[in-house]
Design brief:
The strands form three sheets. The protein has a four-stranded mixed sheet. It has a four-stranded antiparallel sheet with strand order 4-5-9-8, with no helix packed on it. Strands 1-2 form a two-stranded antiparallel sheet. The protein is globular and about 85 Å long. It is α+β, with helices and mostly antiparallel strands. The protein is built from twelve helices and ten strands. The protein has three domains: 114 residues, Butyryl-Coa Dehydrogenase, subunit A, domain 1 (Orthogonal Bundle), CATH 1.10.540; 109 residues, Butyryl-CoA Dehydrogenase, subunit A, domain 2 (Beta Barrel), CATH 2.40.110; 162 residues, Butyryl-CoA Dehydrogenase, subunit A, domain 3 (Up-down Bundle). A hairpin with a 5-residue loop joins strand 1 and strand 2. The longest helix is centred in the middle third of the chain and has 37 residues. The two termini are 37 Å apart. Helix 4 packs antiparallel against helix 5.
């Protein structure tokens, strides 16, 4: 059994490092762009007088970085070759995300709004597996041409991780001779809606509350009458691009349906699995960064005439964290590799528990590591002169998004005890 990374992957990491050094770091330091990464200057990113939305200048900088990465052949790495990508695997994406976040915060990979020079495109798989040919052309090709952007409308004010009890409903209705759907209901935390061209709105179309079947995904164009953004929710980590919104007598034609009617929950699941494993890898890398920075500081700092690192009270917590990082890295890489060995639609039934293990544990670990880094660094660690408070603020949300950690632990439990997944056959009566 060989646990070493493939040489071509190692070579690609070196290529990415070279690109960052030559193209991205100079851009980060140009024209005072470093202000966006100085968290004493939070206002540089956040337009506090405009609902806390990201400033235009900040988003333009991210766009510039991704355009340069696209020109160099990196941005679309995970996408199929027919869309200009490199068929990047889940394993390679996990390793890259881990590598990037170990480098610390920067324009190469700033996760406050999921930006990276190697992009994450879960919508590509979503449209590849569930979209019509016309939808694939419009939303995949259009997405890469930057004239289409889809926000993910699953969560509701009264139903967070539990999508099966959603109250947003869509009923068939013909208007002006055109068959379609009328949508009524509320959604929340619809990230990126301020720049999205469409909202993928998941609606109850049949069945009863709690049923997995009976949910349909409808692609609602921004500006459609009856789809209203009520407010942008200010969060622990700013700027915000997460609105609360509602649908009232909002109508879309039949062509807005993505995937099978009443089978939309599978679409949502296809979206979250890729995000969860990549989130996990990002959190792992950030946790590793916090540990390594703490080790360096503890060797340099000499209170009472001796290295801080001489104290076991400093050593042992970091030893625990370093051990957890090493064990988790193996699980994440193994799980990502296993995802690559099966059809995309099989992942939910065979690997969902392992992906959830990776996700909830990594997101909890990085919060622990950032907190410990603050403690080791003392006052300066708590300040915004160091990145640990920002790492904590950002990654803390991952313990809630993509399914709260309690929901993911419930998924692991269902697989472990044979209520779902491959072990179900062990407990058949």
């Amino acid at each position: 059994m060989d646990f070493s990374l493939p040489q071509d992957l190692v070579d690609y990491l070196a290529e990415l490092d070279d690109f960052i050094a030559k193209e991205i770091k100079p851009l980060e330091e140009k024209d005072d762009n470093i202000r966006f990464f100085d968290h004493r200057r939070e206002y540089a990113r956040t337009d506090f007088e405009n609902q806390g939305l990201p400033r235009h200048e900040w988003e333009e900088l991210l766009r510039d970085a991704s355009l340069r990465a696209d020109k160099a052949g990196h941005w679309r790495f995970s996408a199929p070759k027919k869309y200009g990508g490199k068929d990047g695997s889940n394993l390679w994406m996990a390793v890259i995300r881990d590598h990037f976040t170990q480098m610390g915060l920067g324009l190469h990979n700033d996760l406050q709004n999921e930006h990276s020079i190697v992009g994450n495109f879960p919508f590509v798989n979503m449209f590849e597996h569930f979209g019509t040919e016309d939808q694939q052309k419009e939303f995949i090709t259009g997405g890469f041409e930057r004239n289409r952007r889809v926000a993910f409308g699953l969560t509701e004010p009264h139903h967070g991780s539990d999508a099966t009890h959603m109250e947003t409903r869509a009923v068939r209705e013909t208007r002006d001779g055109v068959p379609g759907w009328r949508i009524d209901g509320e959604k929340m935390w619809i990230t990126g809606m301020h720049v999205a061209t469409h909202c993928a709105a998941f609606c109850r179309t049949s069945g009863n509350a709690g049923d997995a079947k009976g949910i349909t995904c409808l692609l609602v164009p921004a500006g459609t009458p009856g789809m209203v953004v009520d407010e942008y929710m200010w969060t622990f980590n700013m700027p915000t691009d997460h609105p609360r919104m509602h649908f009232e007598n909002c109508w879309v034609p039949e062509s807005a349906v993505l995937g099978p009617v009443d089978g939309g929950l599978s679409i949502a699941q296809s979206f979250v699995h890729q995000n969860r494993i990549r989130q996990a890898a990002s959190s792992l890398g950030a946790a590793t960064y916090c540990v390594e920075e703490s080790v360096k500081y503890a060797r340099e700092r000499k209170p009472f005439g001796a290295e801080l690192a001489r104290n076991q009270g400093i050593q042992f917590p970091l030893v625990e964290l370093a051990t957890q990082c090493e064990m988790l890295r193996t699980l994440i890489y193994k799980t990502a590799w296993e995802m690559d060995q099966m059809e995309h639609k099989e992942i939910e039934h065979k690997l969902s528990d392992k992906i959830s293990m990776c996700n909830y544990y990594a997101n909890r670990l990085v919060c622990d590591a950032a907190d410990r880094a603050m403690q080791v660094h003392g006052g300066i660690g708590y300040s915004r002169h160091k990145p640990f408070e920002h790492i904590y603020r950002h990654h803390r949300r991952y313990r809630i998004t993509e399914g709260a950690e309690e929901i993911q632990m419930r998924k692991v439990g269902a697989y472990l005890f044979g209520y779902l997944g491959p072990r179900k056959a062990l407990y058949k009566k």
